[in-house]
Specification:
Length: about 160
């Protein structure tokens, strides 16, 4: 294997590992570990939204991420974000990782408080100082089970009430 092929392989591996690590740290509520994974401007797009618009400052993104997800660390609540089947495309200092996902969100052990989504994550990365940074997270659900919107909204409300 020549040196360029080896560099390309390392790039693909690092990009893929960054995406997996992001979702693992999200499930572990390790906000301080997530922040350095992000570019200075980031966007989360959901559904068919074009993720090429509306980048926000990293601090705003982190604040919103915590507000939406920290409530899952209260009581019997939790999340699981599994990502698999990564396809990594590298183009110079940009990369796109497309993968399948299975995500679960729950507020309690009650069946009505449990929701799952499956679909695709499309994650855009940029290279900054020899390391990959997440710039766009595009979540494209294919299938929902349970009242995901209610579960997610309630988790955010629980976190807000916990901090008021």
């Amino acid at each position: 294997m020549d040196i360029e092929s080896l560099k390309a392989l390392v790039d693909r591996l690092q990009a893929s590992e960054l995406v997996t690590d992001f979702y693992l740290k999200l499930d572990l509520f390790e906000w301080d570990a997530i922040e350095p994974m992000l570019d200075e401007s980031v966007v989360l797009a959901f559904g068919d939204t074009d993720p090429r618009a509306d980048l926000v400052p990293k601090a705003t993104f982190m604040s919103d991420l915590i507000a939406r997800n920290a409530g899952y660390q209260l009581g019997d609540a939790g999340t699981f974000h599994g990502d698999y089947g990564h396809v990594v495309e590298i183009d110079g200092d940009t990369a796109t990782v497309t993968c399948k996902f299975s995500a679960a969100h729950w507020l309690s052990q009650a069946p009505e408080d449990y929701a799952t989504l499956t679909g695709l994550y499309i994650v855009s990365l940029v290279r900054r100082n020899d390391s990959w940074k997440i710039q766009r997270l595009w979540i494209k659900p294919i299938r929902w089970q349970g009242d995901a919107r209610r579960v997610m909204d309630e988790a955010a409300k629980n976190w807000k009430a916990h901090n008021d």
